[in-house]
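Recap from last week: sequence in, structure out.
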Amino acid sequence: MNAGRTLNDLAAELTRQSESKKDYIAPQGVVEAVAVPGANDLPRDIAVTGFNGGAMELTNYAHGQLSQHLGIPKAYYDRMRTEQPELLAGNVNTWLKADAGNKRMLRTLDGKVRAVLSPKYRPLDNFDLANVVLPTLIEKKVQIVSAELTETRMYIKGILPALSDELPNGLAWGTGHNILQQQDRGKLVAAIVISNSDIGNGTLRVEPSVFTTFCTNLAIMQQAAMKKYHVGRANQADDGFEVYRDETRQADDRAFWMKVSDVTMAAFEEKYFRAAIADIRRAAEQPIEGDVVQAVTVAVEQLALPPATSSGILKHLAAGGDLTQWGLSSAITRVAGEVNDYETATDLERAGGKVLVLPATDWKRIATAA
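Predicted structure tokens:
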């Protein structure tokens, strides 16, 4: 598992961001793109102005949102951005003014635009989410083992050692680490992954998971997972008047965050954990019957994993000596712990959980690959 930040570091950065970020809603007609010189020998770029009194550059993710919103093909957008920023600014301004009355929400942080969104976008801020789920996790005696804030998402990963089971019979996979006490090693432990994007990059998720204490692997089990899309009430009515009182919106927010807290608590219900353990034990009895190299190749393609992960998965599958569905899952989640990019590592942990519950026909395609 990728360690990421400590909980204290996460809390400090969330607090800092909550004090620095600002949101604006403005008609497209007042927003203007301008070419700006690059700082510290960086290439020239574009910034946007007209909504906050000064020009603000955009993050790479916000550039992607602007490209998509205006219908400018991303490859062409990126080429203009790199080679002809004045041309890109002109294109952006043309399409912004073509629908001048259309409004956009611009979320900013540290003097940069980090998101270009619909004004109906309902922010579910990382700071608010952490304030809701961390007390719940502490109440449940959950141990936070990994946390991170990337450019687009927040992650909190925790385990509950009190809810555990033995590894499948005879299996002692991996090399072992020292996250838990020695008496707790070699077990399957209930875990949780909570993730969120407050700039439109996916949903708020509360995902029950299983953690392998012997090799500190995490498999995100997607059954019973909660997903909340960031759409809801509009921030402003079409006629410019507020439809809902602040008290109404605040009550709506409180109700939603209470639901998140309830789902977080329910993620550690024993019935969900036992169902996941049953899936793991079934997977441990499903052998790879064909060529191991081809099995990994097919699995990488079927799970849409980065091709570069194939060699690592094959290496750990062979080293683990468990040529089963469970062994393949363990090899994938082991590679997740070696990947520097936190987003990619989490995707691999989800893939490891997905392998365990593949439909029989999908698993057969992998297991019998020749």
